[in-house]
Structure formats: structure tokens, C-alpha cells
Design a protein that fits this description.
Strand content: 5-15%
Shape: flat
Oligomer: single chain
Radius of gyration: 35 Å
Structural class: alpha+beta
Largest sheet: 6 strands, antiparallel
Number of strands: 8
Length: 287
């Protein structure tokens, strides 16, 4: 039917013919060449959550008994044994104080001293005592062990049995200690409230080898200085560093589920897929 045939009357009013509008021009589209089948579409880029917990962590990697930070600096952690300062004589206390003063004055790099208190799980100890009691044939020793087990169990239920660990963190900044420490202090608030803006720094092999040697010298200096006080210390290994950070970031879970041997750990690795998952419940019609 042509537009001219639409000239009719409805209730005595003539109907004008419909105008013919030109079709809008379309921009030419370049078709992808099809070689052996249809063209493949480029998958969408994976979504990155800038507010995830992983981006808020300052630790990038733990290897070779060292902690590598996101800014390229490194840390070595030393664990120390405590000494009973209260039971010393006045002369021994004075010698320890002077030795500690000389130790601090001999340092040419910053240190961080950490005293960490954590709850001790007394369950394995009670299980061990119960097993020994079961194998005990002496009736008198059995009664004494029952009283001791009940006493320890009652104390653990009423109060929290705490243990203290002493650590010294030895840092190293490849760009210089004073400049890096001042910049870290200046940007402390920014790093706390906007951790997603941090950028990981790549370290070449020469810088990494130099950092390891310098940290080894600093750790030896700290160990020798503490030995003058009568404090025995040693550097934490890679496994011990992993356990330490696991306990720090998971204080409640670490008591019930301690971290086992890294070499015997196995599990299914889960990664995030590309694109977005289908949400069929959003496609349903609502009335």
C-alpha cells in the first residue's frame, strides 16, 4: 500500500498522507575476518576489588628468612628469651643496664621491640596428662594425678593462661633508612585509610642480594649485643615467620587451629574467574 492510498475520511475529517522519512545513515562497521570459523570475542577484563583485605596488607612475600614489604623494604625478625631481672643483685642489675645502654648506642639503624601476649591452649597438655594417668598402675600416684588434672582444668576455665614472646624487628630500606622512615611516618595516615593506593615495588637480583647481606650483618650485630646482656636470641626462619604472621592476623583461630608444617599442607587452589556470574534470580519478573 502506497501513502497516497491512505487518503480516506473518518467522521468527515480527511486524513493526510504519512510522510516518508529518510532512513538514518549508519556508520560502516568493520567485520572481523573469519578464518576457520566465527570471530572470537575479547573476554572482559577481570574486576579488581580495591578494598579487599589482600590490598590492605603491607607484606608482599616471605622468603629466605626475610619479610619483603610492598614498598621494597625488608624485615628480619629476631626472637629473644627473657631474663629474670628482679632476682638479680644490685651489681648485676647495674651491669645489665650499662650493657643495654651500650647496645642501644652502638646501633646505626632503627629497631622495633615487640612484646606479644597470647592465650595458651592448655587442652593438649591435659590430654597428655590424661594419657599418662591411664597408663599409671600406682594407685597413690593416680589419685595425685587426678587432683592435679582437675586443678589445672579448673584454673584454665576460670582464667586465661597467657604466654609472652619477645621479638625484635630489624628493617632495611634499599633507598636509605632515614629517608624511608620519615616518608613512612609522613604517609602513615594515608596508608591506613587508603591502602588500595599502594604500589608494589619490583626488586632486582643485585638489590636483593645486597639487602640480604646487610640484614645479615644487622641481625648479627643485634644478636651479639643482646648476648652481652645475657639474652639469647636467634633469627626466625621462613616457617616461623609464617606462623608468627598467621597468629598475629588470626588471634582467635590460631588458638584452636594452629598452623602446621608448610611442606605437608595441601589444598585446592581457588581463583576468581573472568567476567560476572549469572544472576538468574534478578531476571525473574516481579509483580
Amino acid at each position: 500500500m502506497q501513502p497516497e492510498d491512505l487518503q480516506s475520511t473518518t467522521a468527515g475529517t480527511p486524513v493526510q498522507p504519512l510522510p516518508i522519512l529518510p532512513r538514518p545513515a549508519q556508520a560502516p562497521t568493520a567485520e572481523a575476518p573469519q578464518v576457520g570459523g566465527p570471530a572470537l570475542e575479547t573476554p572482559p577484563a577481570p574486576l579488581i576489588n580495591k578494598n579487599s583485605t589482600q590490598n590492605s596488607l603491607l607484606v608482599s612475600e616471605i622468603r629466605d628468612n626475610l619479610v619483603i614489604m610492598n614498598d621494597g623494604s625488608m624485615r628480619a625478625v629476631i626472637t629473644c628469651r627473657s631474663i629474670n631481672f628482679d632476682l638479680m643483685s644490685p651489681q648485676e642489675r647495674e651491669s645489665v643496664e650499662y650493657a643495654y645502654q651500650n647496645f642501644l648506642n652502638s646501633l646505626y639503624f632503627p629497631l622495633q621491640i615487640l612484646i606479644r601476649s597470647q592465650k595458651v591452649d592448655i587442652g593438649p597438655y591435659l590430654d597428655r596428662l590424661t594419657k599418662i594417668r591411664r597408663d599409671e598402675d600406682n594407685m597413690l600416684l593416680g589419685v595425685l594425678m587426678d587432683d592435679y588434672i582437675n586443678f589445672i582444668d579448673a584454673i584454665s576455665r576460670e582464667t586465661n593462661i597467657m604466654d609472652k614472646d619477645f621479638y625484635i624487628t630489624v628493617p632495611y630500606y634499599p633507598s636509605g633508612d632515614l629517608t624511608s622512615v620519615s616518608n613512612a611516618s609522613r604517609n602513615l595516615i594515608i596508608n591506613l585509610f587508603a591502602p588500595q593506593t599502594q604500589q608494589r615495588v619490583r626488586i632486582d637480583e643485585a638489590t636483593y642480594a645486597k639487602s640480604k647481606d646487610e640484614l645479615r650483618n644487622r641481625v648479627q650485630t643485634v644478636v651479639n649485643g643482646l648476648l652481652q646482656l645475657g639474652v639469647h636470641s636467634t633469627q626466625l626462619s621462613t616457617k616461623e615467620l609464617g606462623s608468627l604472621y598467621y597468629n598475629v592476623y588470626n588471634p582467635d583461630v590460631a588458638v584452636r587451629e594452629p598452623l602446621g608444617d608448610f611442606e605437608n599442607l595441601s589444598g585446592v587452589a581457588t581463583t576468581k574467574g573472568q567476567g560476572q556470574a549469572s544472576q538468574s534470580y534478578l531476571d525473574r519478573e516481579t509483580f
